[in-house]
Amino acid sequence: MNWKEENNSLYKSFSFKDFAEAFAFMKRVAVLAEEAQHHPTWKNTYNKVEIWLQTHDEGNIVTEKDKALAQAIDALL
Fold first, then answer.
1. Is residue 71's pLDDT more than 90?
2. Could you list the residue range(s) of the whole structural domain that residue 15 is in?
3. 54: three-class secondary structure by DSSP
4. Mean pLDDT of the chain
5. C-beta separation of 18 from 47 below 8 A
6. 3-class SS at 51?
7. 8 A C-beta contact, residue 26 and residue 44
8. What's 71's DSSP letter?
9. pLDDT of res. 1
10. Closest Cα to residue 47, out of 71, 74, 73, 21?
11. How many domains does the chain have?
12. Exposure of 21 in the CB half-sphere (CA atoms within 13 A)
């Protein structure tokens, strides 16, 4: 599934084998987000991770910063 732009954010859902894999992915995303100083809204339920990206200091819209982080997240897989 590709990132979907909806409600002024980029959204994508990721599924993993189990909670440990999902959490390991979240830790890798956290490092990317911290390096970019751009932090996602996200949710984890067992093996599923959902991520929403939007630039808060630009009025909660999708910007190039969001697109760049989305690409970096996809590169982790």
1. yes
2. 4-75
3. coil
4. 96
5. yes
6. strand
7. yes
8. H
9. 72
10. 21
11. 1
12. 9
Region class of 59: left (phi > 0), else alpha (psi between -120 and 50), else beta: left
Residue 7: both structure tokens together: 């409600």
CA gap 24, 30 in Å, rounded: 10
Residue keyed to tokens 């067992």: 46
pLDDT digits (tens, 9 = 90+) for 5-39: 999 999 999 999 999 999 999 999 999 999 999 99
Supply the pLDDT for residue 27. 98
H-only helix segments in 1-77: 19-36, 64-75
pLDDT in the model for residue 15: 98
CATH at 65: 3.30.1360.20
At 72, list the tokens. Answer: 């970096």
Structure tokens at 49: 């991770």
Residue 60: CB partners within 8 Å, gap ≥ 6? 8, 9, 54
d(CA 56, CA 1): 25
